[in-house]
Amino acid sequence: MLQGKTALVTGSTSGIGLGMAVALAQQGAKLMLNGFGDVDAALQTVRAAGSGEVAYHGADMRRPDEIEDLVHQCERQFGGPDIVVNNAGIQHVALVEDFPVERWDAIIAINLSSAFHTMRVALPGMKHRGWGRVINVASVHGLVASAGKSAYVAAKHGIVGLTRAAALECARSGVTVNAICPGWVLTPLVQKQIDARAAEHGLSNEEAERQLLAEKEPSLRFTTPEQLAALALFLCSPAGDNVLGTAWNMDGGWTAQ
Ligand code: NAD
């Protein structure tokens, strides 16, 4: 479905981003990966999934100049990008009055501003070519809040707003901009929160996991990166041509309550 297209996925060395990159590669897209950690393993996984046309750029999503370079490098190497998945994200849990200022700044930069920077560089090319897809990985926290997550909730509400504004600007160009809003997904970002809960209350990993789900997610099931990637592929398909500015939840009923 995506032969000849180039996809750039930020934060694609792990979790949801890696799942998105694999699914896009399986559909024939060329992939520009980004993120920290085990880069070689991510490159190998995505190469094995697709044509092998996979590259990596280590841009730090806190740095607008590095983000510009990431998009330009993608353009030089593969053309495009035709698909941008803004996925890189971090979490920090603390009350507003205890929130480290440096963590606030990093969350706003990585979880919100980086999407503005990829879009401001990538959208002109997409509009010019008359086809493009921007998929912003927001969260249920783009729609509702939880205590202790002020920066994350602010950034994710922000990215939902950014998605809507950009979608309107692109409405007649063949480019769509949408947000995806997952509930709990069992990735390193969430495992840290399970570990913290287990340590605080003296629980087993299984019990901490069960409590985490029971608190928010009626289905009591994690969404998987593969399920989120299937939604991203739908948005990239012809059936997604007229889907604009949505904040599409996949959250086991979290936001239905
Ligand atoms: P993860 O920790 O597995 O992956 C995060 C990715 O972002 C990694 O590749 C990491 O290297 C990258 N990253 C972090 N800081 C970066 C930086 N400064 N520059 C470049 N890359 C950076 O987490 P995940 O759960 O897969 O999260 C992916 C996205 O999904 C995030 O935006 C997160 O907010 C969102 N999300 C996750 C969940 C969940 O339950 N896991 C739910 C809703 C939304």
UniProtKB/TrEMBL annotation:
InterPro entries from the UniProt entry: 3-OHbutyrate_DH (IPR011294), NAD(P)-bd_dom_sf (IPR036291), Sc_DH/Rdtase_CS (IPR020904), SDR (IPR050259), SDR_fam (IPR002347)
Keyword tRNA-binding assigned: no
First-level EC class: oxidoreductase
Domain of life: Bacteria
Keywords: Oxidoreductase
Example GO biological process: monocarboxylic acid metabolic process
EC number: 1.1.1.30
The keyword Oxidoreductase is assigned to this record: yes
Recorded GO MF terms: 3-hydroxybutyrate dehydrogenase activity
A Pfam entry, by short name: adh_short
Membership in a protein family: Belongs to the short-chain dehydrogenases/reductases (SDR) family.
Protein name: 3-hydroxybutyrate dehydrogenase BdhA
Organism: Rubrivivax gelatinosus (strain NBRC 100245 / IL144)
